[in-house]
Amino acid sequence: MDEHLSRAASAIREAEHVAVMTGAGVSAESRIPTFRDTMEGLWKEFDPQTLATPEAFAGDPETVSRWYDWRRLKCLEAEPNPGHLALAELERMIVARGGRFTLLTQNVDRLHQKAGSRNVVELHGTIMVWRCTECGREFEPAPEAFDAFPVPSECHEGALLRPCVVWFGEMLPEQAVSVAHEASSTCDVFISIGTSSVVYPAAGFIESASMRGASTGEVNPAETPMSTRVDWRLEGPSGAMLPRLVKAIAST
Ligand code: BV8
What pLDDT does 48 receive? Predict the structure, then answer.
């Protein structure tokens, strides 16, 4: 077994509390484009970081709500891939032996939940729920395309619906942040999976875990700013690496 894989497996086998942070890369093998991949089709000329802001929505609510509806439908069609399923299996293994497992995700697609993960913390909200910009009332839209853009609110005449995601420049949900802080300050192992580790505060949690002496790892086919700072790296797609990791943990 490769040296990093066995180092990862033994750290996780001995851990009381394992924390995981996932990003868009975990859903790439479920055919959901990541942020830094070129977007498909209609959205090639748009930069997600300019679309995912309150200013973009205020300035052009039709384009922003079309983009989010297009992504929401892609997420609804998507199925969990072996990487999502392996994380759900890992949680079951650790909880069954009396340990703790915290899955922090930057993803808004709810594929972790669809794969059976239980303790999922959505740091950046979810695209599956939208809210009235007038009163904040939340709706889970039907699994079909909105037929009017920008999306009119059903509860306040003249108000718009927006997705319940955290845009750049917006605060993260307080509860999610406090759970993430608690997890990064108590975990024995912190694994960063499928994220470019450039967006804060999400990218900072592995740093605080590492400063406390937790064993840190990364699963990613490419290098990130964390790659030289983690204790071990599984270099490859999470859909292939995570099932191998779970097998290695279970094998002794
Ligand atoms: C905040 C939800 C306090 C929406 C997202 C100036 C003004 C205001 C704020 C800032 C500022 N300067 C800096 C900031 C902070 C800012 C920030 O960090 N900016 C960055 C760009 C520098 N953060 C914020 O604004 C946050 N809020 O700070 O509030 C505040 C408030 C006011 C003023 C100051 C501070 C809010 C950030 C949340 C933004 N919302 N998503 C939506 O989905 O549309 S961010 C979005 O991009 C994701 O959620 C994720 O967090 C982020 C990064 O994406 P990744 O998931 O990492 O995906 P990416 O495409 O980048 O990378 C994919 C990775 O997967 C790659 O590494 C690739 O190699 C790998 N991969 C590919 N295939 C696979 C794979 N890995 C495994 N397997 C594979 N098969």
Answer: 82
Query: What pLDDT, in 10s, does the model give residues 188-214?
Result: 999 999 999 999 999 999 999 999 999
Residue position matching structure tokens 């079951």: 92
CA of 25 to the centre of ligand 1 (A): 12
**Ligand 1 binding pocket mutation candidate from 195, 206, 226 (most atoms within 8 A of CB):** 195
Q: Name 232's bridge partners.
A: 217
CA 171–ligand 1 middle distance (angstroms)? 13
CA 134 – ligand 1 centroid, Å = 27
- Which pLDDT score, from 0 to 100, does residue 47 have? 83
pLDDT in tens, 21-71: 999 999 999 999 898 776 666 567 778 888 999 999 999 999 999 999 999
User: Which of ligand 1's atoms lies nearest the C-alpha of 52?
Assistant: 44
- CB 128 less than 6 A from any atom of ligand 1: no
Task: Convert the pLDDT of each residue in 157-190 to its tens digit.
Answer: 999 999 999 999 999 999 999 999 999 999 999 9
